[in-house]
Amino acid sequence: MQRLVWMIWSLWLMMLPAALQAEPDGAFRAREGVLDLSGWTAAQPLALAGEWRFAWQQLSDGIGSDDWPLFVMPSTWDQSGQAGYQYPGQGYATFVLDIQGLDPAINWALFIPEITSSFRLLANGRELIHGGNVTAALELVQPYQGNRWVSLGRISEGRIKLVLQVANYHHHSAGPWQSLLLGSEYQITRSYAHHVIYEAVILLLLALIGLLLLLEYLVDRKDRTGLWLGLFTLMLGVRLGTTSFAPLYWMLDISPSWILHIRVIYISMLLSPVLLFTWLHSAFSGDFSRRLRNLCSLPFLLAALTCLLLPPLWFTALLGVFGGLLLLVVVVAMAVLLRAVYLGRRGAWVILPGMVLLGVAVIHDVLLINQLLVGQFWSPLGFLIFIVSMICNFLLNRVWARQEIVRLSEQLLQVNRELEQRVAERTQALAEKANALQDANQQLQVLADVDGLTGLLNRRALLQQLQQLKQWQGSVAVLWIDLDHFKRINDGFGHAAGDAVLAAFGALLRRLGRDRDRLARLGGEEFAVLLLDCGAEGAETFARRLQQQLRELQVPDWPQIHNLSASTGIAIGRLGETDGEELLNAADQAMYEVKHSTRDGYKIAADYRR
């Protein structure tokens, strides 16, 4: 068993550097504000590192930048030597790079890692993307968070001039401290999706492990090792889920303010060592006393309190100090585990390799944040490997405990039977809770996407479908349908009759629609239909059939309600060329024109007739 675990650790140690190292191509670095990519095969995305043109306290479109000083990217402008001398962290600046030799047959794209603390990117004088609000006025600058990407399309002349405007008044350091990446749109989007899924999977694994450990503690509260391990795992999940691609935000569909975002990042970073020290004391109390735990935890608790009370401009200046404290955590944890291994403590040899890998990842990322290295963050994988090693230790201790019970079973047979029954009951309870949680999550997902009355998609789910069908090549038709005089039905027959009409109309839409079409209730008596591979003629045919069958529609239990009608607006377009919400709004406007004229009819939006 011990040899097998060491073989697995050794294999991970061999694979880790090859999997995570990502350095810029030295043959293609910007020199004197120009990046010549003639001869570049574009096999992988390229880091736009090297000498950019730089203008301090200017938000320029890049005109006349040939005479500007040079700035070595990536770096923050408060690092001495990058642009001749060190600038203050608060202010604004413009960076310019002239890229030449691009293949005009390739659809290009850019990956923009998070820039402190707001940016605006222009290409050949046209704005491509922005994060936050970039302006010279302190009170108007708005920071942002998260990585971004943007499509450049095909560059017919093979040359593009990038202008990066950056403003910062909220963070101690400012500027593009990570390299922008240039590559084909396929490469950038694939890499972006890969990293998002990669971090999301690790986050889900950490959350699942943490919750299971907490459940285990709730079942048996005699041993608090699982409690502290579970809380430490969840805290690492919060840290991972709010940095880089921030998978926690989009999974929970939230967008916190930048100040709350930066506080969560720093506080989760500083509270994780406190929980780690508490777990070490619980697992190896003989080697890590309560007094030593409190002494090591105190600086991190004070630092977390500082991040909670002080403005970000102050506590972000202490990032170097916090990095030093994290390195101290690695040293202390390594010393405790080495002592435990030396003294032959059970399971310590399982955790030690994970602690080594986590230490390497933390040291690497501290150097990366302080701009002493260039590359990708190693912490996500380091967190997961370390947690896995701790879980292995936790489980091995459980296995060894069971073996002792089996060894004593001949003397305490009756006691052993009772213990097995208790274990079986607890295992069943955990399985039932896990299944209930899964069923609840599935039900919540259905409730989030489906209208409960009609069984059609709701508005949010329809908008998601429009976004997911961006790559659909064929023509589409969007119909916005509003039932005429619906208020009279509610007022004359009651809301139960109105609900019956809506349910019957939803069933009618399902009968008329094809399997590939999207049907949704937008709210009240308003509905929407997305017809794929459909032009104006097909949309009109659908609208006429709908009018005819709506007049003949029979509402169950309400025979006195008949001869219904609807006003329909239609917009025709292609989702790859026109934003789905624009088509929906155009159909809505066309519907209102029908509603305010004749009712009981349809109209195609003039600007969306194809």
From TrEMBL:
Signal peptide: 1-22
CDD domains on file: GGDEF
Protein name per Swiss-Prot or TrEMBL: diguanylate cyclase
Chain ranges of the GGDEF domain: 474-607
Keyword entries, A-Z: Coiled coil, Membrane, Signal, Transmembrane, Transmembrane helix
EC number: 2.7.7.65
Catalytic activities: 2 GTP = 3',3'-c-di-GMP + 2 diphosphate
NCBIfam families hit by this protein: GGDEF
UniProt xrefs under Pfam families: 7TMR-DISM_7TM (PF07695), GGDEF (PF00990)
UniProt superkingdom: Bacteria
Top EC group: transferase
